[in-house]
Amino acid sequence: MQRPLKLQQIVPSKVCLSCDVCCRFLDQDSFLAPIFTDSEIETVIADGANSDLFRQMTDGKSAQIKLKPHKEMYICPFFDPETSECTIYPIRPLDCQIYPFALMYNEDRTQIVLGVDMICPFGEAEFQAETFQSYINHIASYLESDGVVEMIATNWSLIGPYQETVVIVRVLEKLNRALIDCGI
Ligand code: SF4
Ligand code: SF4
């Protein structure tokens, strides 16, 4: 039996710890707030998180974290602004693990694509590098691997709207087919 792929990380931790983009949001209802799949919610609740921290998404499975005010912005309740660390890092959702990559619809909403958000300074600086380009193959394969593609198709609210800051790098063919099979 083929072993499931493990998602590698491309951005070094020390780069993220000195960056102030992730985990902070301009609006309390930002659509960019992380979305957790049904099983990710079970995991963080089993770890002690309160279920009131989540709001149900349209797919009826996944839920989005409710952001909390912090200074002039809003932050994820799992973010520690003192240390800039994620307090649930080992069990953070796929939505956070893949950033600066984004799962989204293309502009005319006819396809599900993978893109790189150029708001991430690392993504913008490294986009052309060979390592980054090979990582695109890795993450696309991971997202379309057995088990993962079905999990995304079930928790389809994970697929966000088109964003102009995101450069499309792949059409996710298996995921497109899985959603058509589900009638979505
Ligand atoms: S924007 Fe990029 S570099 Fe900054 S914290 Fe997020 S992933 Fe790390
Ligand atoms: S779950 Fe962790 S990585 Fe994701 S937004 Fe919250 S603090 Fe950041």
H/E element order: HEEHEEEEEEHEEHHHEH
Mean pLDDT value: 95
Number of domains: 2
Oligomer status: single chain
What is the share of helical residues? 25-40%
Ligand inventory reads: iron/sulfur cluster
The number of helical elements comes to: 7
Largest sheet: 3 strands, antiparallel
Tell me the layout of helices and strands.
Layout: H1 13-17, E1 24-25, E2 35-36, H2 38-46, E3 54-56, E4 63-65, E5 68-70, E6 73-75, E7 79-80, E8 85-86, H3 94-97, E9 101-105, E10 112-117, H4 121-126, H5 130-143, H6 148-154, E11 166-171, H7 173-181
Antiparallel strand pairs: 1-6, 2-4, 3-4, 5-6, 7-8, 9-10, 10-11
Helix pairs in contact: 6-7
The structure holds iron/sulfur cluster (2 copies).
Structure, described:
The structure is a single chain. The protein is an alpha+beta fold. It has two domains: 17-93, no CATH class; 98-184, no CATH class. 29% of the residues lie in helices and 20% in strands. The protein is built from seven helices and eleven strands. The protein has helices spanning 13-17, 38-46, 94-97, 121-126, 130-143, 148-154, 173-181; strands at residues 24-25, 35-36, 54-56, 63-65, 68-70, 73-75, 79-80, 85-86, 101-105, 112-117, 166-171. The strands form four sheets. The protein has a three-stranded antiparallel sheet, with no helix packed on it. The protein is globular. The two termini are 30 Å apart. The model has no long low-confidence stretch (mean pLDDT 95). One iron/sulfur cluster is lined by residues 11, 15-16, 19, 21-22, 99-100, 120-122.
In short:
The chain has helices spanning 13-17, 38-46, 94-97, 121-126, 130-143, 148-154, 173-181; strands spanning 24-25, 35-36, 54-56, 63-65, 68-70, 73-75, 79-80, 85-86, 101-105, 112-117, 166-171. The chain is of the alpha+beta class and 184 residues long. The protein has two domains: 17-93, no CATH class; 98-184, no CATH class.
